[in-house]
Design goal:
single chain; alpha+beta; 20-stranded antiparallel β-sheet; 20 strands; about 40% helix
Length: about 550
């Protein structure tokens, strides 16, 4: 369709898709509700400054100056003449009842109409102005149209209908919905029914193909679980297409605040199955939310529940795995011991729940850390008794020195017994372990609903505090948080970390997923973190 390229500046390339998407179909109503799709950039200045900032964070200040010079070379010393670089630009599209019904335009902020027309002439872009104020740019195989209004340039292609008459929306309403540097919003509830049905059909076809392609030697239970998992993913995807209301993606980089953010949000049609599912995600609580605190160098947690069909399929896989494992044990005593452990663990596995957390606190005075890990259990008291009985059997056969390394009921937190394990010399001597905790003892405790493990200088105190946290609380369903300022002694280049974070500056970065009225996914952190990893990559490359 395109035999050669337009002689347009390269800054327009990110907008080409939107411009073509703006192909008009007369059947679409001009202005009915919010657009189906909106792409927004805070300003051209924002784009330039963010590119320069990212290059500078990588330790390439000279390259940043070269980038600025290159931009001026491409768009001229005066910039894009006639374009206002301080206001938002972007584009929008509306969809009708059919997949081919598209109505939209690209919006470019204009400071001086005459100057912009002169810019086009200087770029050898031919245009003609119609009596209705609409300009036509005749291209190879495709015509573009633009019109000045509301201090903006409205650009569309293929059909001029989107910018005729009163078909021009208020730019403030179109581009004013987000404060991020760059954002994209799609109204899923405005997708044509034909598009939804087509997407569902394609998912069902792919699902059928995937169901028939299992790994070799797959057991019936494993196959049933794999198929149940695939169907659950397909069901979720179709649910988003059918019941999703709005999907938004945004990116922000703020030099003044010193942070960056990348996020996605998904809304649902009220009272739909998807809305109920998102609300349920937001209402879930974790037993281990209390491990999250200001002393964390690292914190990670996840809590969720499997759908009923998937839980049943998982139960059969667990039963099959236990039966297979027991069949491979020939010694009767060991087989009996293994069977007792399996039975004690089975209620937890069959529950289909995930609730666990890991916290790394510090650094301590000796520049090492204390870690605490915890996971939810079913019938934890029974599991604890089973393991104690097994441990007593094992201890009776060990030499005195080895027996002293395992101290059952070493301490307690209320009614919960705490056991201490001493690592052997080889494990203690490992470089990674000494750098992390430099302590030979690990502590273990079972509550009826949870198991706890801790190590490090303050491990006994930490595990007692964790056991005492018996009230579930709200945290994101998935969270990973790092504080590189606190983790500096563990990092590959402590010297670089000290230079960037040594004065106590925040080195936090994290990713979170949570539900509620919307599903929210966000990656957020300090710019110093970007700077650290960029410069570390350069050093590793020998630059």
């Amino acid at each position: 369709m395109f035999s050669r390229k337009f002689a347009l500046p390269r800054w327009t390339l990110p907008l080409v898709t939107l411009l073509i998407f703006g192909a008009a179909a007369p059947r679409v109503a001009a202005q009915q509700g919010p657009p189906t799709l909106v792409f927004r950039v805070r300003s051209l200045d924002t784009v330039v400054e963010n590119v320069k900032l990212l290059v500078s964070l990588a330790g390439r200040e000279e390259v940043a100056k070269q980038v600025e010079g290159l931009i001026k070379t491409k768009i001229g010393a005066k910039g894009l003449e006639g374009v206002d670089p301080t206001r938002p630009f972007g584009g929008y599209a509306r969809l009708g009842n059919e997949i081919t019904d598209v109505f939209g335009a690209v919006l470019i902020p204009i400071a001086d109409e005459k100057a912009f027309l002169s810019l086009l002439e200087n770029l050898n872009v031919p245009f003609n102005k119609g009596k209705d104020g609409i300009y036509t740019v005749q291209g190879p195989g495709i015509d573009a149209y633009f019109r000045f209004a509301n201090k903006y340039l409205y650009v569309t292609a293929l059909n001029r209908h989107p910018i005729e008459g009163d078909n021009l929306p208020d730019p403030a309403k179109i581009l004013g919905g987000s404060k991020a540097a760059i954002s994209l919003t799609v109204r899923l509830d405005q997708l044509p029914e034909a598009a939804r049905n087509l997407a569902q059909l394609q998912v069902e076809e792919k699902l059928k193909e995937a169901e028939d392609k299992g790994p070799p030697n797959e057991s019936p239970a494993q196959k049933a679980f794999r198929i149940a998992t695939l169907r659950e993913f397909a069901k979720t995807f179709v649910g988003v297409i059918k019941d999703g209301s709005e999907l938004s993606v945004d990116f922000d980089l703020d030099k003044n605040r010193g942070d960056f953010s990348i996020g996605m949000t998904l809304g649902a049609v009220p009272k739909s199955d998807l809305a109920k599912a998102l609300a349920a995600v937001g209402q879930r609580k974790s037993l281990f939310a209390g491990l999250r605190g200001k002393d964390n160098a690292f914190f990670g947690a996840a809590h969720a529940a499997l759908p009923e069909d998937l839980k049943k399929a998982l139960g059969k896989v667990i039963d099959e795995g236990m039966t297979s494992a027991l069949a491979g044990i020939r010694e009767e005593k060991k087989k009996s011991q293994a069977e007792s452990v399996f039975k004690a663990l089975a209620p937890t596995f069959r529950a289909g729940e995930i609730d666990g957390a890991v916290a790394l606190n510090g650094p301590n005075d000796n520049k090492t850390y204390t870690f605490v890990a915890a996971a939810k259990l079913r019938d934890g008291d029974k599991l604890a008794q089973t393991l104690r009985d097994l441990a007593n059997d094992v201890l009776g056969a060990l030499p005195d020195r080895e027996r002293d390394k395992i101290k059952l009921n070493f301490d307690s937190a209320g009614s919960v017994k705490i056991h201490r394990l001493e690592l052997d010399a080889a494990a203690q001597g490992k470089k990674e372990w000494k750098k992390l905790v430099d302590d030979p003892y690990v502590y273990l405790a079972f509550r009826d609903d949870a198991v706890f493990v801790a190590g490090g200088k303050d491990a006994l105190k930490a595990i007692k505090a964790a056991v005492a946290m018996d009230k579930a609380a709200s945290i994101p369903v998935f969270v990973l948080e790092f504080d590189l300022a606190r983790m500096a002694p563990l990092l590959e280049d402590p010297g670089l970390a000290k230079n960037l974070f040594g004065d106590g500056r925040d080195g936090r970065v994290g990713i979170w997923i949570d539900g509620g009225e919307r599903l929210n996914l966000r990656l957020q952190g300090r710019l110093a973190v970007v700077q650290f990893f960029s410069q570390l990559k350069q050093r590793n490359a020998g630059e």
